[in-house]
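Notes to self after the call with IL:
- keep both proteins in one doc
- input above output, always
- annotate only the second one for now

Protein 1:
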Amino acid sequence: MHAVPKGGERPIVVLILFMLLAAAGLASAAEKAAEPASQAYDRAEALRQRDELHQWLLSEGVTAGLKKTLVARVSDSEARSVDKSDGQRPVRVGLTKAASAPVHFNGLRASRLKGRVIEQEHGALAGLEDGGFVYTMSVSSPGATAMRLHFSNFSLPPQTAVYVYNETGGAFGPYTGRGPMNSGNFWSNTLSGDFMIVQLRHVGQATDEVLRRTGFTVSGVGHLRPVYNAGLCADNAKCVVNAAGIDESAVVTAREAAGQMSWISGAFIYSCSGGLIADR
C-alpha cells in the first residue's frame, strides 16, 4: 500500500523551488545590469573635450600665481640613478622629490574677493564675477620629460575642484572632495614637460565657510626622465610585431590599442606597457 502525501506538502515544495529559481533569475539579471555598456572610444571627441578644458583653464588662470613657481630640482646623481638603470625590471622611468606647498585660505573674507587678486606664498587667488574664485600656482622640475604631483591633506567643499595642466594642451581633472580614493592623498595624472599648473576653481557664490574648508598640500613631485618615452624595451623588441601593414579586420581593430601604467615605489617611478587585445 502506497503512502499518500499529506495535503499541502507538494505545493510547498513547488513554491520553494519556484522562489529559488526566481531569485537566481533576479541575481543573473542584476549581474547583467551591472555590466558596463560597451561603447566605442571616440578619440576625436576625447581630444576635443581635452582642448575645451585646457582653453577654459587658460582663460581663467591667475597670471600673478605664476610668479613664485615651486621648483623641485633633481641632482645629476639622481638623474643617473634612472638614466643608467638599463636592464632593471620593472623599468625605472623616474623619481620622486619631496615638497611642501600648503594651500589654504584661512583668514580670507569672501566679501573682499570680488575683483581682487590676492597673492600667496605659492600662487594667487582671484575673485570672479559669478561670486566664486580661482587659485593658480605653478610647479617645475627642470629636465623632466613629464611630471605628476602628489597631493596630501586634500579637502574641498562642494562646487570646488582642482585641475592640473601644462602649456602644450594637456589637462586633467576635476579632482574633488577628498580626492579619487576619498583619502585626501593621491598622485595626479601625468603631464608632459617640466612645468605644470595647478588650478582650483569654486563655482558660485563663495562664503567664509567655503574658504575655510578649502585646502590641500602639494607634498611631492614626480620627475619622469626621457626613458619614460623611450618606446620598446631592448630585451623584448624581437617579440613585437608592427601591425601597421596587416589588413585583417581583427588586427585593424586592435592595432592602435595600447596600455601603460606607472607606479611609485620608494623614491622611484616605474612603468610597464603593452598592446591591448579585446577578448570579448
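Protein 2 (the one to annotate):
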Amino acid sequence: MLFQYIVRLFHFLIGRKKEEKVMKRNPCGKRNLSALVVLALVLGLFAAMPGQVHAASGPGDLVDAIEYYSHGGQGALQAHVSGNTVTVTGTVTGAAQPLSLDPDEGIKVVWKAKLWGNSSPLIVLDSSAKGTFEVAAEADINSSNAITLLNNSMKCAILVNGGRILNQAASGIGILSSKQGATVKVTGGTVSASGNNGRAIVCDGPSAVVTVTGGYVLAAGGGWGTRAIDLSSSADKAAIHVSGGDVYASGDAIAVYAYNATVNVSGGYIRSTGTTTGSGI
C-alpha cells in the first residue's frame, strides 16, 4: 500500500508542476529536478520501513481488496466491517482472476458470498496473512479449475462452519494448505471435490493440522486418486483429528503419505465406498 501512495504522490507532483507558469530560466530542468528530489526523499522513507511493504491488511484495506476485486466476470462483492471482523456478501460468477486476501493478526474475514469461476486458485490467502478466514452459512465458493482455496500462510487459519467450498475439476483440490503449521478446521458446511481424482483437503506443509468436528468433507468424483483428506509426503509431523462430521470418498477417505503423521478418530464417520479401490484410512 505504501508503494502505491508513493507512486500517486509522484504523479501528483508532476501534474502540479505542469500547471505552473513557465520559469524564466531553465524551466524543464527545475521542474524535473524538483520532482526527482521529492521522489528520492520519499523512496528513502520507503526503504527505511521495509516491514510495512509486506504487512498484512487491516479491515479497511481488506474492504478495498474485496470491493475493488477485478475478477473478470459478472457481479460484485460487498464487505462490511464490525470491529475486527470483515463480512463478505454478494455474488460473482465467471471469475477469471484470483482474489488475494491477507488479514492481519486478530482480523477475521467471514465469507458469506457466492463466488464462482475458473481461476486457480479462486481465493488465495497470502503469505503475510495472520488472521482467520471463516466460511459461514450462505457461502458458496466454487472453482472449475485446479484449486478453489489456497492458503499460502503459516499463520492464517481456515475455519469452515457453514456454506460450501467446491472444486469441480479433474484432479482438483477444494482447500490446499501449503505452509508449515497451517490449520484447517471444519465444524459445519461442506468441503467437496467432485471431479475425477479430486481431493477435498490437501496439506503440503510440515506440522499442518486438519480438524473435523462436524460438516462434510467429500470426494466423490471417482478415480484411484480420489481422496477426502490428503497429507502429502512433504507434510511431515502433520495431524488429522476427527471427532464428528462425515469424511467420505469414493477412493481414500484419509490418505497419509507424510512421515511421522498422526491420525486421531474419536467420532464421526470415515467412509470409503464405490467402484474404485479405497480405504477409510
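Annotation: The longest strand covers residues 85-95. The chain is about 15% helix and 40% strand.
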